[in-house]
Amino acid sequence: MAMKVFSWRVARWGLGALLVVGAFLAWRTFMPARTDAVSLARAPLVRTVQFSARVKTPARVDLGATLTARVAKVRVQEGDAVRAGDARVELEADEPRAALAQAEASWQQARARLESQSALSLPTAQASLAQADANLQAAERDLVRAQDLVAQKFYSQQKLDEARRAVDVARALRAVARVQTQANGRTGAERANAQAQFEVARAAVEAARAKLGQYTLRAPGPGRVLVRSVEPGQIVQAGKALLTVAVQGPLELQAQVDERFLAQLQPKQRARVLADAYPDRPFDALVDRLAPSVNAQSGSVEVTLVVAGPSERPPDTHPDFLREDMTLSVEVLTGERREARVLPLRALRAPAAAAAPADPRDGAATGAVLVAEGGRAVVRELKLGLRTLSDVEVLSGLQDDDLVLLDPTLAPRVRVRARLLEAASTARKAGDTGESFGNAVSQGFSR
């Protein structure tokens, strides 16, 4: 009898335990899942791209000799500033100086000959022509008189023949004088010959000066000497670089940026730059141009920036501490909203986060989230705007009071009980100062 009572009690306890477990399982099955949720927050949103760059001067010029000679003087050291046309290296040039002096003497001689031809030869020829004309006129008058006297039987025929010969001689002399006058005129042969000799002599002087100029190496423009590879007394060969000069001009900042960010970068975008050696002296820059092609080996695109002034135009001067090949940290502002409806990026369903733009004109992309609606998780399609590393702008598809579920393991249509969290946005405020902008660059690269 006692055994039956004990068995009945055990059975009753077992049945009670089964009922408790079943009730618990039913509660777990039908009880809504408790999950974190956020709502839209209105906040400024800023997107930037950070990368490293280097300083590049517009031109780096190698100065070298065009002939073989001995170096006489070197007037510059590495790091010295130079002006356009300054003589920096002088070669021994005794022989070309003598050749120039000889050419200049020949030029002076040709000039004197040309001036003499204009001042003496032409007037002399003109005077000879005038005299020949007078002699011809006199001979013609004598001939007329002789003809009359012969007709009157006062002169013999011999006198008439002599008068005729005198007229012929006078005409020949006048023809010679006329030819000489024409030859010494502005378009005459003598004038042309003297002018040609003068031009040849002048060309010889210019050639001698050019030859002498090759013995002096001059700065092609204002700049700074980067490399000096020559000393006085050294014999240099043609084509060897003796000095390397960085010519002054608008500095360029060149960077190799991952091609993933190519769609975000555009010319005229504002940037903040820090030199690694001068982290407390940030300055502004503008994206100037993007390379037309992508480097296939590195998967990067070359981005060129220029130093910007207050009016977002290249200034007349650049920061004086910048040096050739200096390493820089750059942060380019690629997108900004002064007030946006912001949602944490982790709330997006993974496949939709990388969706293609729905409207190429405004760059909007589509996405999807789960929202708590009627106690269940419901899929909501969104139109998205500016996206940063942690937040995304919602253009349409959500109301401000919608509860967006954060649990990525939730399936659509399951029962949920949302627990609202405070919206967290990593976007910087639109009113940030340039100093905080620069600190962000420094901190971003120090991580």
Descriptive account of the structure:
With 447 residues, the protein is α+β, with helices and mostly antiparallel strands. It is built from 6 helices and 21 strands. The chain has helices at residues 2-30, 94-151, 157-183, 189-213, 350-353, 434-446; strands spanning 33-38, 41-56, 59-64, 69-74, 81-82, 87-91, 216-218, 223-228, 235-236, 241-247, 252-258, 270-275, 278-290, 300-307, 327-344, 357-359, 364-373, 376-387, 391-396, 404-405, 416-420. Strands 2-11-14-13-12-15 form a 6-stranded antiparallel beta barrel. Helix 2 runs antiparallel to helix 3 (157-183) and helix 2 (94-151) runs antiparallel to helix 4 (189-213). The chain is elongated. The two termini are 80 Å apart. Residues 352-362 and 424-447 have low confidence and may be disordered.
What brief labels describe this structure?
alpha+beta, disordered C terminus, six-stranded antiparallel beta barrel, 6 helices, 21 strands, 447 residues, four-stranded antiparallel beta sheet
Spatial ordering of strands, largest sheet: 2-11-14-13-12-15
Total beta-strand segments: 21
| Spans of at least 5 consecutive residues with low confidence | 352-362, 424-447
Provide a count of the helices. Answer: 6
Shape: elongated
Quick check: average pLDDT?
77
**Strand portion, in percent?**
25-35%
- What is the CA-atom radius of gyration, in angstroms? 50 Å
Structural class: alpha+beta
Order of helices and strands: HEEEEEEHHHEEEEEEEEEHEEEEEEH
Distance between the termini: 80 Å
Gist of the model:
It is built from 6 helices and 21 strands.
